[in-house]
Amino acid sequence: MGLAVFFLVIVFVPMFIAVAGIIFVKATKLVTGCVFLDKAGDQVWKAFVPFYNNLALLNLGFEKKSALILFIADIASFVLMYLIYFATTLLSGIFSSMESVLYGSSYHGTPEMPAPMMIISIISMLIVYFFCFIRTVVFRMRTYALARTFNQEKWFCILCLFFPLILSIILCFKRERYTGDVIKLFGPKGTDNYDMA
Predict the structure, then answer these.
(1) Where are the alpha helices (DSSP H) in 40-63?
(2) How many whole angstroms separate alpha carbon 134 and alpha carbon 136?
(3) Taking the alpha carbons of 22, 23, 25, 29 in that order, is the dihedral positive or negative?
(4) Are 32 and 60 in contact (CB under 8 A)?
């Protein structure tokens, strides 16, 4: 009985906390997306469509070309991140199968990973972390741009880069209206657009 309770506490409680955290973040992003689209006078249904919701929110804060480039960077990072993960898992299985073929089915091998697979795993892990970093930067830039287009003070916009989820919730409850002054990242700066500085 004591071992079963220990196992439940060690395994399932952290898993429950992680799943609850993921659900909270996703629900918060969905609700704040609905509020931002509604405040901007856009259609709220866009917040419920996966991937398109990100493009709709990027279009609120950035001009069309900048929003599209950031959207493509985000989607490409998402796809490549999972492709690399899948390829690494596949290669791990191939190396494991080769080891059992070379040394026989009775060979259990050493606990170490083969050197080529270790190198591939380290490189793929670094690449996946890089793509996660790109997705994080796009999310933070989006929150910063939304704060700018909802006429927030400079300090609030800068804090959005560090605490995007919390401040997007706060921004939903503020009464400022959508100004439509979007950020232009690429090309010559227009008179009606903010620059990133």
Answers:
(1) 52-61
(2) 5
(3) positive
(4) no
Q: What is the pLDDT of residue 98?
A: 67
- What are φ and ψ of residue 124, in 5° steps? -65, -35
For residue 3, what pLDDT is reported?
77
Rounded to a whole number of angstroms, the CA Rg of the chain reads 23
- C-alpha span between 153 and 30 (Å, rounded): 24
CB 166 within 8 A of CB 29: no
Question: Quick check: 32 and 172 in contact, CB under 8 A?
Answer: yes
State percent of the chain over pLDDT 90.
53
Residue 95 · residue 117 · CB < 8 Å: yes
Pair 179, 92: CB distance under 8 Å: no
For CA atoms 178, 179, 185, 187, give the dihedral sign.
positive
Strand partners, 194: 183
Instruction: Assign 2 to helix, strand or coil.
Output: helix
Confidence band for 118, pLDDT divided at 50, 70 and 90:
confident
- Residue 41 φ/ψ region, left for φ over 0, alpha for ψ in the -120 to 50 degree band, beta for the rest: left
* Dist. CA 106–CA 100, nearest whole Å: 8
